Amino acid sequence: MDLSGGFGARSGGGVPFREVTALESLHLGGGDEFRRMVPPENAGGFTALLELPPTQAVELLHSSSSSSPSQPTLHSLGTLAFPSNSVLMERAARFSVIATEQHNQNGNVSGETTTTSSVPSNERIKTEPAETETCDQAAVEEQNNRCGGKRKDFDKKVKSSTKKKNKSSEESEKLPYVHVRARRGQATDSHSLAERARREKINARMKLLQELVPGCDKIQGTALVLDEIINHVQSLQRQVEMLSMRLASVNPRIDFNLDTILASENGSLMDGNFNGTAMQLAWPHQVMETEQSYHHRQLQQPPPQQWPFDGLNQPVWGREEDQDLGNDHNSLMVGAANLHPNQVKMEL
Amino acid sequence: MQPTSSMKEEFLQKWQMGLQIYRPLIDNTSVSERMKAIKLSADVAMASLRRGTTCWSRALIQKTATEDNFLVRQMLSGIKAETLINKKLPKVMCHRKIVRRSKKILRRRKSRSAIEEVAAKARKLVNKKTQGLRNVVPGGEFMSNDVLLIQETLDYIVSLQTQVNVMRSIVDAAEAGSER
To answer: In this prediction, what percent of chain B has a pLDDT beyond 90?
Structure first.
């Protein structure tokens, strides 16, 4: 049974011949007629099944009992988590594998199907739009290919799911279109496929958002999660405003100078460094600024500067130098993993 | 993804650069002016971290360019400043009221089953929330599809968190120092 043909190659090596004949007789020309044979999405009625070739009808019969009551007709952003969906997913897990278009397949080994695959890292998200956008468009166009693939899917659902999934994921990386496999009992026309791919994409990203926003994991339902996200964004924006107002009021002139090394993730560490070497208020006409001391403090590249640093006679920075040098050097050389506020000077 | 320290450093550098631009300009005496200067430079610094790859950063830069063109130009010199500032905003904005009215007209004779009604209500709710999200995220109105919107939101939230973290540490340091 040759499964290495992938979706594109209909070499017929792996397909039993009687299947081929049965299907070929129906395949009248292009994928359209074939797709019309496929039952519509609410496949409950027998009349739809009768039009199908026998093998597919049998499979659909098996799945229709489980799938029809729980067929969600929701096309929204994956709302209202149906409890029966998980049951359906268990069944689907045993019989098929969902090959999503996302590259990260590590979490989906051995036929475990989750509509949202394991969390891809955020870096991948940035590279993803370039691919997934083209995937989307091309997915709708490449109907024939997928229809051919569906024939094989119905037959070969059980076997070697992981191998096939890996293969398809590799292929989706190279090819511009998306290989999405239909689960049992789900419609296979191109529109719903594209929609389903889109929905899965959205669900995956919603999951990431849920992890990012604190307290969103417990919430069920898209609308509430979106609510939380909106609140979080608004609160962050308000925090920025508050902080800028505090900074403006604390500091009469907005030029404060920071040549600090900011490496830590939490600013709470800097409380410990405040003791002797903390903020000094500089007198505006200190001429003690020397270039080398400035460069000493900086263990990183100085920012691309728009003001000349050479002639630092003027207190452009207005910093107080003399007695702090020793302390600052020591504390700076040690670890330097915290934000050292001792170098933050302000002018009055 | 949590804000990394390199992101924070970069943001700090850029923010400082922006503040330096303000310094010789005006003798900032009023609190509101200073706050505006701080906030604007912080926003542009945050947006410039993304170098124009994300939609929200472009929209944010354009928004601050309307308020202070000079600052934006100075801060972004060298990083395709001109293209970012001069690029017209994409006219994808659809007038929601008109769309809604026309949809209502088209929607006349559809028979509703119970399930469909629930689904329709859920969909409406979600759409309302997405619209709310679009209002909050800068440039949200120009993101036509939901996938892009959520992606941008992710990135925007991470950048906001870096901004808040850095600003908070600076403010804490400044306040503690001024208490002496």
So the answer is: 8
